[in-house]
Each structure stands twice: as C-alpha cells, then as structure tokens.
Amino acid sequence: MTNSNSMTRKLISWLGGATLLVWIAAPTIAAFIFCNNVNESSDDLLQASAEYREPELIKVLNGKHVDQYNNHLPTYKYWTYREQVINKYGVVLISEPEEGQQPFPDAPLSNGFWGNADYRVYTEEIQDGVYHQLAEPLDGRRTTIAKGALFVFLPTLVLLPFSLAVWWIVIRRSLRPIEVLRQQIGSRDGGNLSPMDLGDFPAELAPIAASVNRLLDRLRAALEAEREFAANSAHELRTPIAGSIAQMQRLVAELPNGSAKMRARGIEQALSSLGRLVEKVLQLAQAESGVGMADHAIDLVRSVRLEIDDLRKKPQYAGRLHLNVDGCTTLMRKVDVDAFGILLRNLIENALIHGLPTVPTTVSVQTDGTIAIANAGPVVPLPDLEGLTKRFSRGATPAAGSGLGLHIANMVIQRIGGSLELASPARGRNDGFEAIIRIPQ
User: Fold this and answer.
1) Would the N or C end of the chain have less CB density within 10 A of its end CB?
2) CA separation (Å) from 421 to 387, 398, 416, 426?
3) Cβ contact 277:402 at 8 Å
4) 418 vs 413: CA distance, rounded Å
5) pLDDT per residue over 147-199, tens digit each?
C-alpha cells in the first residue's frame, strides 16, 4: 500500500501546484495588459481619426466646397468606422456611411468616450450644439485580443506538462538517497544490527547515516555483552549442576537397593530436569537478546549435519534421526550460527521427546530454504496446536519437557526473519507432528 504521507508526493504536489499557479497567472496578467494596451491604442486611434475628420466636417457644415473631401472614412482590415454629425436636438446632419444610417441614440452628447456591447463611440463638440460622433465596431478589438491571448496561453499549455514532468524527474532523483537511507534503516532490527553502507550519501544525509551506524555499534556492543553474560552464566550453572548429577549418580551406584537408593534416583532426576530447564532459560535469554541475522552467510546444511551428529551421540537419541537433504548440498543464508543452532536443536529435541521412539524423526532440507522436522506420534488437536508456541505451553502429553522449546524456536525464527509452521498430522502422514521453518534468501 502506498503511504499517502509521502515527501515525494507532497513536493510534487506543492511544487507542481505552485508552478501551475505561476504559469497560469503570468499569461493571465500578460493577456490582461495586452487587452488594456489594445483598448488604449484603439481609443487613441479612434480619437485621432475623429480629430483628423473634424476640420473637413466643419467646412461641410459651413457650406464650403471641399475638393479633397472624398466622403469616405478610413477603413482597415479588421474594423470600419461609422460617424455622424448630430445637433443637440437629435437631428443627424451628416452620416457616414449614408446607406442604412443609424444614429447612436444611446451615446450621450458630451465630449469623451462611450461604449456598449457592439460599439466604442468618441464624441466631441465641433460647433456650438453640434457634435461629431465616431464609432468603432468592437468585433475587431475582440478578434485581436483573442488572437493575442491565444499566443500567450498556447506556449503555457504546451510547456506546462513538460515542466511538471521535469519537476517529477528532478524530485525523484533528488530524494533517491533518502529512499536508500530509509530502506537501510528499515532493514535493521533486533536480528540485523550490521552497519549501513554509507556509500554516496549527500552531505545532508551522511551525518544521519553515520549517527545511525554509531548507534548500531553501541547497541551491538550492548547485545554482545548481554549474550556474553548469558554464555558465562550457562557455563557457571551447567558445571555445578553437572557435578551434582555425577555425584548423585555415584551415590546411587553405591547405595544398596532400598528406599534410600530410590530417593537418590529421584534427586538425580530432579537435578537432570533442573539442568534442562536452566539450559532452556539460558537459550530463552539468548533469543530475547536479539540473536538472529548475521553479516555473512553460513551453510545451513552443514549446521544441520553437525547438530544431528551431536544429538546422535546421546544414547537416548541414537538411531532415531534421519536426515534427508533431497539434493540440497548447500543452503547459504545470513543467519547467526548460534541462533540457528538454538532453533534447530529445540525443534529436533521436541520431536524426539514427543515422537514415537520406534519411528525415526526425519529432518528434511530443501533448496528453497525450507527445513522440516517430522515425527510419528498421536495427532495434536488444532486448539492445542495453535497455542504450542506460547511460553510454558504444553500439549496433552506425558513426556517430560519444559514448555519452552517451541516458544524459543518461534522467537528465534522471528529474529531471523523466517516463519515457523506447525502441522499435525505431519504432511503426507496420518499421524505425527511436523515443524516447518522457512528462512528467506
């Protein structure tokens, strides 16, 4: 979905709107000035023509013969004048053209200009009570103004889309570094704290990228310290618990059969459960510390082989694991090796603990990044299946377990950026349970 609160969209909208306003206002003002100039020039020409005619008209009114007077008014390409000489009683004394002569009944008999929708009339008193009126049809002026306005607006209409396109290209290219910075910051999270590539950021953005990198360095150092503390705590807790279990096993071996030996076995089992719980709690602390993505890719197939080989060495899991790589010799992903180990071990141990011991648990690796761990066993009801990834959640099973394995696995796969799918019955079977993890490229 496109974010409506986009800087690019706002810049294009505001600058495009401002450009459109300027491009419309400029020719509008120019057209207005052109219209005024045409009207002023036409009025000047109308007045000059009237003043040019007046001496000859006065001679005609006085009854003098004028050879040069040809009784024709100047005619131009786009307009033709009409004139009349009228006295103050409304009697037309001279009219040009004579045919179809019409006085100007609405024009006032006073010096100056007057106009209506069709004519512009200039009136001047040439004798006492006698007025000369020269009229110009407005069609010519309107035609001239319309053509002038068209010449002013036409380039604007042609160049405006081109101008907006240039704006759009320039803004997109100018904001491209911001988009790159946004993508780089957006790709950083608890599972990916790698420094950003400063690259060719402009001077305005380079300090921001550098500050983010310094912040990532401090955060990465803090998480490393937390991870180190978890690892040291694991070592410090495992050692005394393992020693206590060894001492208790020796005590069980030395005690004669009886109630004391049974109590000693109970203590041994309790210490073993405590050791597993401590291991899960420490893994949970590591998962919550943000382990997940890594700067470099590792071969997940190799990690799967190492994890399975390690589990096969345990007597209770010997002969119970089957690896199917299905032609996938390598699977490179940018995943923290410790995080992937915690993820895979929890899923495999969950399958071994709750699966039928007589049917091997299958670990499948496919080239698309899918790793599936399937075991035989009773079908898990759908309501129970949906809640298995919650902390300390256990299904209806008598098997030993802390209720943290799937929760830790789900947390780690989220840090990695992948997905965990639980299915029961397992795919292609009528029973069992299957955990499917998908790790993106």
Assistant:
1) N
2) 12, 23, 15, 11
3) yes
4) 5
5) 988 888 888 888 888 888 888 888 888 888 888 888 888 888 766 777 888 77
Give the CA distances from residue 290 to residues 81, 190, 225, 242, 414, in Å, rounded to whole numbers and listed in that order: 93, 5, 12, 28, 10
Instruction: Say if residue 19 is exposed, middle or buried (CB neighbours under 10 Å; 0-12, 13-18, 19+).
Output: middle
With b meaning 16 or more CB within 10 Å and e meaning fewer, what string describes 127-143? eeebbbbbbbebebbee
Confidence of residue 372 (pLDDT cuts 50, 70, 90): very high
Share of the chain above pLDDT 90, in %: 14
Element (H, E) at 349: helix 337-354
What is the C-alpha to C-alpha distance for residues 358 and 326, in angstroms, rounded to an integer?
23
Q: Which residues of 369-378 are buried (b: 16+ CB within 10 A; e: fewer)?
A: bbbbbbbbbb
Q: Is the model's pLDDT at 373 over the cut of 90?
A: yes
Identity (one letter) of the amino acid at 69?
Y
Distance CA 53, CA 351 (A): 116
Structural element, H or E, at residue 130: strand 130-137
Is 302 within 8 Å of 325 (Cβ atoms)?
no
Q: In this structure, what DSSP letter does residue 433 have? A: E
Question: For residue 356, what is the enclosing H or E element?
Answer: none
Closest residue by Cα to residue 226 from 195, 275, 196, 190: 190
Q: How far apart are CA 362 and CA 434, in angstroms?
A: 9
User: Is the entire prediction scored with pTM above 0.70?
Assistant: no
Maximum distance among all alpha carbons in the chain? 164
